[in-house]
Amino acid sequence: MMKRKTSQFLIPVEKKEQIDSSYSIYPSFSIESGAINEGYTTLAMELAKSDTLVLDGYVGVDWNEVITSLNAAFQKMGLSTSIQNIDGFLKSEGELKSMVDPFLGGDDPIFGFRTNLELSDYFDKTRMSNVLDDKVDIKIVYGTGASEMDLDGKLVYFDLPKNELQYRMRANAITNLGFGSPKDHKQMYKHFYFVDWPILNKEKKKLLPNISIIVDQQRPGHPVWMSGKKLRDGLKRMSQSHFRVRPWFEPGVWGGQWMKDRFKELNPDVPNYAWSFEMIVPENGLLFESDGALLEVSFDMLMFQESENVLGKAAHRFGDEFPIRFDFLDTFQGGNLSVQCHPKPEYIKKEFGENFTQDETYYILDAGEDAEVYLGFQEGIDPNGFKRALEHSYTSKEELDVEKYVQKLPAHKHDLFLIPHGTIHCSGINNMVLEISATPYIFTFKMYDWQRMDLEGNPRPMNIDKAFENLNFDRQGPKVSDTLVAKPKTEVSGDDWEKIHLPTHKDHFYDIYRYEFDSKVAIGTNGQCHVLMLVEGESIELEVEGCEAQTFHFAETFAVPASAENYSLVNKGKTKAKVIVSFVKDEAC
């Protein structure tokens, strides 16, 4: 059976040396030599030192592979085992369906409501009992939720990156937690996002301090693992120096060729790349590297353990939710995005259970000569007439004259367009957009999509009614270019550097600056986590006191935690370096 369905390469066990100094799709954080181990045989040898094992982990883990491989290794060592699958104590699918359905939004293909269920709700505790045989060498309880057995044993946690979870989902190789068969993929992802992930993230946070061994299970038949102590020590060091998450990439109906042409480690045999998830807490992972070996854990583990070190002042408001998102939207030789808007703060809280809304900006990393952005309404817009036109276009499949209703502004390299909630917008073709945003990322209300089908040939869902509950029709006419296009201003400068403010909208809780320098610039975090990207130049070196200097290349996203306090950026290229820095506004904490 095919275990993953994707055009993206499976991450190698050993990190290959980069031939040229360019964007890396496998960024890693170095830890001590010998920390990362490979294979089920070495894992079994370590686990054999204990007589009781609790093998827990995330949804999507291949538990059949895990227990079959480990048990075979134990038998080869001459060790007897008694094994209990925690799934045997799950409530019936009928009970689970009744429990989770209120959070799944019915037939809506995208939206549900973030659950308040606990993992313990999934199990029938009246049936749960320890039936393991005490007369064997090793007793094992395994499966997602194995810790619910409350067995006193070595805790081994099997993690799975969200991109690989979704590739397994698309291959119908996994199911939602507690369910025996896969759903339609859109419904399954919605179930993951609103139910499985919140429940299991809460459980992962609870288990993290007690994990004895962490296992990265994404490579079929070939796990990598290290001690829980080394994991926690690595996260601590990361929270005081820097981190760059592992980006991942997706094609789309409007996708372009910019990333495909420039990011050399990507699979070139793909029609396009529409997105890169550069830094999105719910989706990305963090790579640790030891002697070239790579082990990935979810980004949120860093936040669960080190939110105060990472976020500083902003931890009071955001807790362990990382507030700022960086991602790429590539329309070079591609198509327009859908015409869309995002929900008001009170709407996203009431309807979906999110704590803050999807306020965005478009930073233009690169642009063709004809590049444009759709933003705001034409002067004198008639909301009712616009809605009737959208509904007619949707039912009749006739194309809509979008520019009759929506303004189109020219886009140039280094422009910043402001897209607070309720603003109608989309990128036009031949833009390479760095989307700097609040972290929520699926709450896009599409109104018009140029009569396109999705990559499977199905109509893309529209959300016209939801959009009209959130659209701000005051953003029209000259007010759009006056208030929704940032006006850069140099705040301070030196002999060969400038600090330029790109003011965001009052509704944005984050701010954006650009540093331009020939040699070196020193920056203070002022108690905030800084998210950065080199948006012009070849490479820069990050210097944080007490840490080894790190090199970052053009278009790579990285972060400096609040606890670092001060850092310097050194231009390693031959031309002026330009670096974007975003952080939470003090007044928004």
* Share of helical residues: 10-25%
CATH topology of the largest domain: Rossmann fold
By CATH reckoning, the class of the largest domain would read: Alpha Beta
Major β-sheet, in short?
7 strands, mixed
Q: Total helix count? A: 13
Strand order of the largest sheet: 2-8-7-6-3-5-4
For the record, the CATH architecture of the largest domain stands as: 3-Layer(aba) Sandwich
The proportion of residues in beta strands is 25-35%
- N-end to C-end Cα span: 49 Å
Taking Cα atoms only, what radius of gyration do you get, to the nearest Å?
25 Å
Corresponding CATH superfamily of the largest domain: P-loop containing nucleotide triphosphate hydrolases
SS-based class: alpha+beta
Average residue pLDDT = 96
Global outline: globular
Number of domains: 3
How many strands? 31
Low-confidence stretches: none
Short description:
This protein is α+β, with helices and mostly antiparallel strands and 589 residues long.
Q: How are the elements arranged and paired?
A:
Blueprint: E1 29-30, E2 37-38, H1 40-47, E3 52-57, H2 63-76, E4 81-85, H3 93-100, E5 138-142, E6 154-159, H4 162-170, H5 185-207, E7 213-216, E8 224-227, H6 228-238, E9 248-250, H7 258-262, E10 275-279, E11 285-290, E12 293-298, H8 299-311, H9 315-318, E13 324-330, E14 339-341, H10 345-352, E15 360-367, E16 372-377, H11 383-396, E17 406-410, E18 416-419, E19 425-427, E20 431-438, E21 445-448, H12 464-468, H13 478-483, E22 489-493, E23 497-501, E24 510-517, E25 520-524, E26 530-536, E27 539-544, E28 550-553, E29 557-560, E30 566-571, E31 577-584
Parallel strand pairs: 1-11, 3-5, 3-6, 4-5, 6-7
Antiparallel strand pairs: 2-8, 7-8, 9-10, 10-13, 11-12, 13-20, 14-21, 15-18, 15-20, 16-17, 16-19, 22-23, 23-24, 24-31, 25-30, 26-29, 26-31, 27-28, 27-30
Helix pairs in contact: 1-2, 6-8
